[in-house]
Amino acid sequence: MKHVIAGTGIAGTLAAETIRKLDPESSITLLGGEPFYPYCRPMSAMLLEGKIAPEEMVIRKADDFRSLDIELLLGDPVQGVDPVERKVETEQGKVISFDRLLIATGADPVAIGVDGCDLGNIFPMRKWEEVEAISQVLPDVRSALVVGGGLVGLKAAQALVHRGKRVVMAEKLTHPLPLVVDQKSGAVISQHLETMGIELKVGTTVSAFDGNKVVKEAVLKDGSKVSCDLVVIAVGSRPAVSFLEKGAAAVDQGIHVDSHMETAMEGIYAAGDVAEAMDVVLNRRKVNAIWPVAVEQGIAAGMNMAGRRVPYRGSMGRNVLRIGELDVLTGGRVNPLPEEEYDVLEDENPRRNTYRKLVFQGDILKGLVMLNRIEKGGILLSMIQNQMPINVEKEKLFDPGFDFSQLLPG
């Protein structure tokens, strides 16, 4: 059996290791489009901030793959897949045959096609090489604009302000992290960012950049102008599937996969940020482009590629992060529409700077937001993931002395 894995992110890496654990004989080839050994992408902002050294980003090295007899090819992205002839072709012209293929190529940053977007010092911040490029110009930077207030934009803004730069963040919706928190917690996060020295401009985004070879100013859609000699574009990502022939696989947000992480192309699987799998909260396919989901899907794909036929129940969006001195934990459905049949409980304590919101459908917890006092959030996230009924009075979950072990099955 010849296994080929396209992508050296955490999904591809764990898939390769899982296959080898279950199948000591088959060949495994791991193809990386980037020139780096597998690294921890969530630590990119820490690298930009200077909190870690570059070598601390690396999570696997050559010896790790050599000891498992996994062939590792770096710096040569997949350019095409032939599902009939069972071959992949790389950018450098290598043709590699496979019996089973995993597509774990992740996602590419969304570009913004406005006037001046080709000026220097305008970068996305998804890959290690992009963080390196930002770091190289940083000594000459005085002020930065971060376009997009999602997770990547937020981490970039925090890293840059900690490096002593003036930072403005533009978010086209009403508050930062609009896809993972609600309006109330978004307002609290906004206040914290302002306290940290990050100037927020919400309800607007960039309409043009100006400068002479290098960006010097951004014009926003609300008519305001922002002086900046560095811009980080963080307006989202799209699955990296340009190498697939149109119609070869069903692709919406990502590549559709079944409960065994297999695509519509027999023997071809997908995992991580490129895969659109079942979301256990929404009960429909969705890309949940977060590290823990990539871990789960990589292992699940590897088990199925090795012939174990283990079903993957589905993923769930969740995030845990710190913004200044504010701890934030979210998961599941946090912004149900008014016409939807959800029950929402809230508990707010401005004096202790805490806010908690629980979203129920009947006795099933569907979503939560927690600001500070998040230490019991892991149990609640587990309840959401497993769609287990809450068998106590719901308001008790806000009691500081509540024993959360009561929620776990006996």
* Strands ordered across the widest β-sheet: 3-2-1-7-19
Question: What name does the CATH topology of the largest domain carry?
Answer: FAD/NAD(P)-binding domain
- Strand-pairing-aware structural class: alpha/beta
| General form | globular
Question: What is the C-level CATH assignment of the largest domain?
Answer: Alpha Beta
Give the total of beta strands: 26
**Helicity, as a percent range:** 10-25%
State the end-to-end CA separation.
43 Å
Query: How large is the share of residues in beta strands?
Result: 25-35%
Largest sheet: 5 strands, parallel
Number of domains: 3
Q: pLDDT below 50 for ≥5 consecutive residues: which ranges?
A: none
CATH A-level architecture of the largest domain: 3-Layer(bba) Sandwich
CATH superfamily annotation of the largest domain: FAD/NAD(P)-binding domain
Query: If helices are DSSP runs of H or I spanning 4 or more residues, what is the number of helices?
Result: 8
Radius of gyration: 22 Å
What would the average pLDDT be, to the nearest integer?
Answer: 94
